[in-house]
Enoyl-CoA delta isomerase 1, mitochondrial
Amino acid sequence: MALLCFQSLRMLRSGIRCMSQNAQLVSLTVNDKTGVATLSLQRPPVNSLNLELLTEISSALTEATDNNSRGLILTSTNDGVFSAGLDILEMYKPNLDRVKEFWTKLQETWIKLYQTAYPTVAVINGHSPAGGCLLALSCEHRIMVKNFTIGLNETRLGIVAPPWFIASMVNVIGQRQSERALTLGHMFTTEEAKNVGLIDEIVQNKAEGTTQAEAFIQKFAKIPFQARSLTKTWLRNKTVESLVKNREDDLNMFLQVVTQPNAQESLGHYIQSLKNKATK
Ligand SMILES: CCCCC/C=C\CCC/C=C/CC(=O)SCCNC(=O)CCNC(=O)[C@H](O)C(C)(C)COP(=O)(O)OP(=O)(O)OC[C@H]1O[C@@H](n2cnc3c(N)ncnc32)[C@H](O)[C@@H]1OP(=O)(O)O
């Protein structure tokens, strides 16, 4: 409690204000001087995206809009893992009602993040496989700390990246590079990701990443907000519409693929291999 008060006091002095008071799995703060919001994922141990975390991310994105944020930095409180992607336990031997809600919330969160009116920057301060990579790809600018990995590795798990995951990558690195990366399930090192254009900047640490992210958002200070946001909407509309118009089909396809016995078997082996690795 004392620590909380001390932290709040320190944040107030530096002009950082806490939003999302009820959130537990994310923190949302805003810098009152710049109007830039920071959304930090904080679901230990690896920010895997379960229904509850997705719900909090989605609410925080709306709150940043309602608060007229000038920009948003997406990052993790865990220096080591940005996000481990979708929580595999949501997809393994799933409860049907819950897994439907989970996928629908994932769709909603992606649509919101992909279309925010404000500029978005991912400060990728750790590994970022699969759904973690999707979050980063949905931002407008990606800054990554050295010595980590990022990519859409679904095929390695025996599952398939849905078309909107694929489109998010194609829009950033193009068809040829995406085809190679996705079919192999390749995880790029920070250096490789920079070379292929998957990320825009390499930094030494999160603090440097945050400074660079603020500088990126500051570039838009003199660009009229609505002109910018409408341009972004039109640039991204085709990609988003392809999901918006087919959400039910996408959900059904996901349920069909993920409940296949061979997909369940692959997920089961994968969970076990992660557990074995963790206990070594
Ligand atoms: C139109 C429709 C098309 C069809 C759709 C069909 C199919 C569905 C497509 C679904 C798409 C899925 C995308 C995904 O995001 S799948 C998830 C992919 N994620 C991964 O492969 C990452 C796995 N994790 C790791 O590689 C590592 O954990 C790490 C992120 C590099 C971090 O390493 P480290 O810090 O060393 O941590 P540990 O490995 O020791 O893990 C700690 C702890 O966390 C558990 N865990 C890790 N990742 C996940 C996860 N994604 N979900 C749930 N749990 C995870 C791990 O098991 C350890 O647990 P214990 O402490 O209990 O042992």
